[in-house]
Specification:
Length: 326
């Protein structure tokens, strides 16, 4: 696959590298660093094309003499293919193959953290390919677990939280027979809870809120003979997330969490000890949350979420009306 590098700055930089008295290895390193620069904050698809072009050029320059740089160029190619918007499954397959080709070389020559980062990204690519039947979720989970050997909570709390979150979401999206459904849901809850033993509100607020929000979602839909208990635990998890998420600083995350909380309230009796009395108060609170979330999603043009919340609000208003008629 050949990408034309048309950006004038890139052309000028490549010309400079060609004329420099740098060694071949230094030139390869310069190309890779330049390509990584385009990836940090890509402003357009042209930046991504430039990045790919530079990584491919570095890869071709490596030959068999600079195996570690060759692997790093492969990782760069994979990472670029991975972030192309609405990635075609075939581009993701190429990303997967590039990571898999790079990993044995990185394991031999690179630092453990570089290997773990590649395993994390391979896990993400595999997870993205599962809906297209082009990868297995078990392989994605295995890649995440391998990365966890390096990304411990003591030294890499952010990566640790992300990995546990991804593992839990992978479990939740695995197709299983109905009798094993509770097993994968239980494994997902375990993964969130394992991370939350070490990721706290004070030191890692963003990761803490993400894990609590997603734990609430897992608990809410957990198959169990104690649905009320699980819903109460879900409410507690959302309230923990809302200690971090607010309408001013993190409006979309906040809207996600309050709409999730509204989903629970929709189905939660006002008095858990007397479920037969229904939930008129919780329905009113759920309505307020849905209305606030709907406004935020509308303001930010999150069309799909607007439709979902609007539909939930419609169903809830019908439920409130039914209570009033009774």
């Amino acid at each position: 696959m050949n990408f034309s590098v048309t950006d004038s700055a890139v052309k000028a930089a490549i010309a400079a590298i060609s004329n420099e008295s740098a060694t071949a290895e230094e030139k390869i390193q310069m190309l890779i660093e330049m390509a990584q620069g385009f990836l940090k904050k890509p402003k357009s698809s042209q930046d991504l094309r430039n990045s790919l072009g530079l990584f491919y050029r570095a890869y071709e320059m490596c030959g068999e003499d600079y195996l570690l740089w060759k692997a790093r160029a492969k990782v760069g190619i994979a990472g670029t293919l991975q972030i192309i918007p609405d990635s075609d499954p075939q581009l993701l397959v190429q990303a997967k193959e590039s990571y898999e080709e790079a990993l044995p070389i990185l394991q031999e020559f690179a630092e453990p953290v570089e290997v773990a980062e590649t395993q994390l990204n391979l896990g993400l690519v595999l997870q993205s390919l599962v809906p297209h039947s082009l990868a297995r979720m078990t392989d994605s989970i295995q890649a995440y677990h391998q990365a966890l050997r390096v990304f411990t909570w003591e030294e890499y709390p952010q990566e640790y939280a992300i990995l546990h979150n991804n593992i839990a979401i992978a479990y939740l999206s695995m197709p299983m027979s109905s009798e094993r459904e509770y097993l994968r849901q239980g494994l997902a809850v375990q993964s969130f809870e394992a991370a939350l033993e070490h990721i706290n509100l004070i030191d890692h607020p963003r990761e803490y809120a993400m894990l609590q929000n997603n734990l609430g979602n897992a608990l809410q839909y957990l198959m169990s003979s104690h649905p009320i208990d699980n819903n109460l635990r879900a409410i507690s998890a959302y309230e923990e997330a809302l200690k971090v998420r607010n309408a001013q600083d993190t409006p979309l995350e906040y809207a996600n969490t309050i709409s999730n909380k509204a989903n629970v309230l929709f189905n939660l009796p006002d008095d858990p000890e007397k479920p037969e009395l229904g939930n008129p108060e919780n329905l009113i609170n759920a309505k307020l949350y849905y209305q606030e979330a709907l406004q935020i999603f509308t303001d930010y043009q999150e069309i799909e979420k607007v439709e979902i919340v609007a539909q939930a609000l419609k169903e809830l208003e019908a439920e409130i009306q039914a209570f009033e008629l009774n």
